[in-house]
Amino acid sequence: MSHAIRFHKTGGPEVLSWDPAPDGDPGPGEVRVRHRAVGLNFIDTYHRSGLYPVAALPSGLGLEAAGVIEAVGAGVQGFAAGDRVAYGTGPLGAYRETRVMATDTLVTLPDTIDDTTAAAMMLQGLTAQYLIRRLFPVQPGMTVLVHAAAGGVGLIACQWLRHIGATVIGTVGSSEKAELARAHGCDHPILYRDEDFVARVREITGGRGVPVVYDGVGQDVFEGSLDCLARRGTMVTFGNASGPVPPVSPLTLSDKGSLVLTRPKLMDWVATRDELVAAAEDLFSVVSSGAVRVAVHQTYALRDAAQAHRDLEGRKTTGSTVLLPA
């Protein structure tokens, strides 16, 4: 009997339970995947806590994983038993040992990328891809600000931005994280708890500010981030690690230099099969080439997901974290 992590009510990490979960047989258009590695992301804590409501309880958890196809249902094209696959956009329920699912969110893994790396990079890597390559296409010579530069998305984004030829300013919470971010392409790490990051950004940019801020932190840095932007700059707030961003008046954006504010989500940027495949191929290319190294700094047994959530929310993790099925 396989197992899955579920939650029967919203709340803290203690609501996560290790429940029996039958393997199931794939129906038409479906495959059964045996997970070899499952990704952990901050959005998982939002689903668990109720910040992002789920459709019904009890519910599974998790949006990304990598594994091998065990069985194929009728009518499936492009996938076969034995194929290595990964996904990073759900549907919700990746925290399980085996899973029956439709193939529309699956992509085939190249031999150059192992299962642990794939599980660690799909959601975070696809997020970095749309943020810096499509939502605001960063050009060589630009200077940009990345909050949580030592986090999973941050470390991927810093490396990719360096590969593009941008200068990266990044905020971090400790000197250890500053060194980690620097080693992964962050030119100017800022300890935001000890320094005025707005003043430092203005100093680094000669008073001009940056054309774009990528913010997965939220409440703690939002207002300061607006003051880091150059005229007509773009504020990209894509996460709430420190809490939701408070309401902001459109007049504030006008007063601070005709700023653009966006609150995007990955699923809208890989909404079609063609968009998903193109984004994944772009990600696989920079990882396979070595331009971007995926930093898996923590692994936990899948059944210990609650502890992984405690460590993630307690800011005890760096880079990516992967949950390993038995």
TrEMBL record:
Q: Where is this region: Disordered?
A: 9-28
Domain Enoyl reductase (ER): start-end pairs: 11-323
Cellular component aspect of the GO annotation: cytosol
Query: What CDD domains does the annotation carry?
Result: QOR2 (cd05286)
Q: Mention one GO molecular function.
A: quinone reductase (NADPH) activity
Which keywords fit this entry according to its UniProt record? NADP, Oxidoreductase
InterPro entries the UniProt entry points to: ADH-like_C (IPR013149), ADH-like_N (IPR013154), ER (IPR020843), GroES-like_sf (IPR011032), NAD(P)-bd_dom_sf (IPR036291), QOR-like (IPR047618), Quin_OxRdtase/zeta-crystal_CS (IPR002364)
Q: Which top-rank group of organisms is this from?
A: Bacteria
**What are its E.C. numbers?**
1.6.5.5
| NCBIfam families listed in its UniProt record | PRK10754.1 (NF008024)
What is the protein name stated in its UniProt record?
A: NADPH2:quinone reductase
Organism name = Roseospira visakhapatnamensis
